[in-house]
Design brief:
By secondary structure, the protein is an alpha+beta fold. The protein has helices at about 30-40, 65, and strands at about 5-15, 20-25, 50-60. The chain has a 3-stranded antiparallel β-sheet with strand order 2-1-3, covered by helices on one side. The chain is elongated, with a radius of gyration of 16 Å. The model has no long low-confidence stretch (mean pLDDT about 85).
Length: about 70
């Protein structure tokens, strides 16, 4: 079964020296932005590290695996 209106989640990612070290999922944008700001304020090297917030749809699909 496919949900016609996908849910949206917000993913916060922190990358240190090119390596993703944190990926967290939030239900609302405001909380995700607060978390991103907290990550930037703690142990963050602006020359080598990066954070980003991504808006991501969740689409539910039924597969043969899910039926068992």
């Amino acid at each position: 079964m496919v949900n016609d209106s996908p849910e949206t989640v917000w993913v916060v990612v922190k990358v240190e020296r090119g390596i993703p070290v944190i990926a967290e999922v939030y239900n609302d944008r405001e909380t995700a932005l607060l978390r991103e700001q907290a990550l930037r304020n703690s142990c963050f090297n602006p020359n080598d590290d990066e954070t980003e917030v991504f808006k991501t749809p969740i689409i539910y699909k039924q597969t043969a695996f899910m039926e068992s």
